[in-house]
Amino acid sequence: MPRQDGKVAIVTGGGRGIGYEVVRHMASLGVHVIIGGKDEQEGQTAVRKICQEYKEAKVEFELLDLASLQSVHQFVQSFKHRGLPLHILINNAGIMLVPEGRTQSGFELHFGVNYLGHFLLTWLLLDTLKDSGRTGHCSRVVTVSSSAHSIGKIVLNDLNSSQFYSAHAAYCQSKLAQLVFSAQLQQELQRGGFPVTSCAVDPGVVNTALYQHLWTPLRLVHGTLAPWFLRTPAEGAATVLYTALSPALEGELGGGYWADGCKEMTSPPTFDPELQLSLWESSLQLLGLRWHQMKE
Predict the structure, then answer these.
(1) How many CA atoms lie within 13 Å of 176's alpha carbon, on the beta-carbon side?
(2) How confident is the model over 235-253, as pLDDT tens digits?
(3) Are the C-beta atoms of residues 179 and 145 closer than 8 Å to each other?
(4) How deeply is 70 buried, as exposed, middle or buried, from its count of CB atoms within 10 A (0-12, 13-18, 19+)?
(5) What is the C-alpha separation between 150 and 173, in angstroms, rounded?
(6) Which residues contact 160 (CB under 8 A, 6 or more apart)?
């Protein structure tokens, strides 16, 4: 990738795993990167490691808890107060197969953290992304999803999985919701003629801390076999970096769903216009947002 001096990026969950490798590589290319995460010790440790490796790196950490809508608002307010541009937003943080629980606002954890928290973050940063992009140099929103979206089902009348809870089903629903959001956002941005693109990425099956909530016997097997069969976080970060930085993906060439460095088809629900619109409107309502803000 070419040098990226002058660009500013936000990476959620950049303190470890795929996010850390994304931050590390961006920093090596001159990007000013802000890690958004809820573990301050982990985040500050990541900052120190990267700055030790790359003496000129511009990396910092800011508290961001995607399970708290208040925290998302505070993070965005703090960022905007600094008057920085924003060229790249990587929605990377996520949880998987966690026990049933609720966010501070009462949303099911997978849906609230993986999807709604990133929806709100992206929405609140859209004006800065629009102002920072220009023709031939669009700002980019990259959402890290998963191939698990293909078996996900969005239950519009039970987005919080209140009627029946399955951690696996809740996770897959959140990953499909991310894809539907990414596709709908790209359509809205293109329709408005804004210099911002939105795409989603499947990083593959990567050996990260996401698997800590596996059933104990499976976790033991995973710990033994993962180094041999799963991708490293650096390998998982490759397509994320490509979609965020490649000059080949400007304008109409951006967007879509990417895996292994290639644009791929997604499951049929991703293209369902009725589902796209219904999920979009439900999300706005749940978050107390207004559609007209998108068009400004």
Answers:
(1) 25
(2) 889 999 999 999 999 888 8
(3) yes
(4) exposed
(5) 9
(6) 102, 106, 107, 108, 111
Tokens of 218: 């499976």
Tokens of 25: 């590589």
Cα separation, 228 vs 198, in Å, equals 33
d(CA 83, CA 87): 13
Residues 130 and 146: beta-carbon distance below 8 Å = no
How far apart are the C-alpha atoms of 289 and 197, rounded to whole Å? 21
Catalytic residue, chosen from 20, 171, 242, 257, is 171
DSSP state of 30: T
| pLDDT above 80 for 58 | yes
Secondary structure of 78-127 in HEC code, one letter for each residue: HHHHCCCCCCEEEECCCCCCCCCCECCCCCEHHHHHHHHHHHHHHHHHHH
Max CA pair span of the chain? 52
**By C-alpha distance, which of 179, 252, 235, 278 is closest to 18?**
235
Q: How many residues can be counted in the chain?
A: 296
State which of 117-131, 211-225, 263-277 shows the largest mean pLDDT. 117-131
CA 42 to mean position of chain CA atoms: 19
Ramachandran region of residue 261, left (φ > 0), alpha (ψ -120 to 50) or beta? Answer: left
Give yes or no for a contact between 148 and 172, defined as CB atoms under 8 angstroms apart.
yes
Q: What pTM, to 2 d.p., does this model score?
A: 0.91
Annotated active-site residue 171? The verdict is yes
Angle between helices 117-132 and 167-192 (to 10 degrees): 20
Average pLDDT over residues 22-37: 98
